[in-house]
Amino acid sequence: MIAIYGQGELPALWEPPRQYAVTLQQLDALSEQLQKQQTALRNQLESFEASGMLEQSTRLKLKKLIAHLEKELQQLAKDTDKIMVAYHQDMLANLTTIPGLGKKTATVLIMITGGFSRFSNYKQLSAYVGLSPRIYESGSSVRGKARICKMGMGRIRALLYLCSWSAKRCNQGCQLLYDRLVAKGKSKRLALIAVANKLIKQAFAIATTHTVYDKNYLNNSCF
Predict the structure, then answer these.
(1) Which of 6, 52, 72, 148 has the fewest CB within 10 Å, making it most exposed?
(2) 222: helix, coil or strand?
(3) What pLDDT digit, counting tens, does each position of 140-170 carry?
(4) What CATH number does the domain containing 79 carry?
(5) Residue 197 belongs to domain spanning
(6) How many CA atoms lie within 13 A of 61 on its CB side?
(7) Please, what is the average pLDDT of the chain?
C-alpha cells in the first residue's frame, strides 16, 4: 500500500537532516529532560520541607542537585545559542521582532522546520505542530465544538499557546483576531489557539521572506 501510494502521489524525496540540526534537537531534548528532573527535585524539596521533619543534610543534597541541573541547563542553552548564531542568527533575530514570540519559541520553530525549509506554506507547519482546527461532526445531526488536532509536537504547541497570551496584548494583528473571535462568542481558549496559529503564519512569512515584523503590514495577507 505504501508503494502504491508513492507511485501515485510522488511525494518529495526524504533528505537526511544536517548534523547541526540533529545536534540542536538533541540538545533541546536533553534540556527538556533536565528541566523535568529539576522540577521534580524542587517539588520533592518543597514536600519534605512541608513535613517539618527535613534534615539539614538531605536539604543540602537536594539543593546541590538542583543547582547542578541549573548549571547544566545554562550550559545547554549556551551550546544551543552558539549553533543558532552560526547557522540561523539573522532568522532568529528577525523572528524575535514579532511581538509575543520569545527567543525560546523562535529557536524551537527553527529547529523543527530545519530553518523553515521543510514546509512550503504555513498551513503545513500548523498541521505538523498540531494547531489545525478540527470539527467533529457526523452528517447533519451530530456536531461538536472546534478542537485542535492533537497530532503534533506537544512542546512547541505549549510554547506557542503561552506566547499567545502575550501576543493578544502586544501584537496588533493577534489582538484584533482575538477580540474579533471573542466578540463573535468564541471561547477564549479557541481564540488563543487562533492567535497561536496567527503567530505561526507571521513567523513563516518573516522567516521565508527574510524580513522583520512591521505592524504597518497588518492588512497584508502574510500577516
Answers:
(1) 52
(2) coil
(3) 444 444 454 444 478 899 999 999 999 999 9
(4) 1.10.287
(5) 122-217
(6) 7
(7) 88
